[in-house]
Amino acid sequence: MSENPVQRVHTLTFDVFGTVLDLSGALVPALRQFLKAKKSKLKPDDLWATWRGRQRTEQFQDSLLMLGHSGYLETARRALVYSLQLHQVKGNVAEVERIMRAFEALKPFDDAVKGLNKLAERYRLVALTNGNQWLLDQLCENNIPVAFDERISVDKAGHFKPHPSVYRAAVQILDCEPGEIMMVASHSFDILGARACGFRGAYVNRYKLPYEDSSLRPDLTVNDFLELSRRLKR
After folding, report:
1. What is the CA radius of gyration of the chain?
2. Is the domain of 113 the same as that of 75?
């Protein structure tokens, strides 16, 4: 009988923003406060959906154009400005900066904290994020009650996930084989990119979204970190 490839895994790399951290929990209230002050009829959830989708585009363009890595917060800021213009809501520089400061108040999902602490008993835990290194460090030290063994920002690779350079940089930093690492993310493109580089993958489908139409499938698909902890055994 052939070995289950997941049994080789001893290191788990985690997407942070949106997988461990609840983005909408901090950013939607900031948008709600802004829109209320503007007396806008636009729903904050609708603005958030536009903003989140546009940030993906900004990140992909940043990597494709290779004009220099802008960083997570800068692409988020550009996406917010674009989204406000799209919805015809005026926001000045100070108002945009006020909304952006909500990123420093992000909190983790409850299931993420519980699951990560259980997984830490059996695996090396690594944050592998599109976020800026300074923001990652600040949030891990102040907002996320989990002791990651390593914190890796894509700043080290100069591209956003799912660019292959991110996963290859992680392999070098962690000093292990790709097949010994499992990428854990609630964004299917992150699993796709990691699997293309030889990682194993766990898709935490907390947003109930379909996976990519690709042969590069996750090894596990779970609803949350508690289920992931139950299914990953060493």
Report:
1. 18
2. no
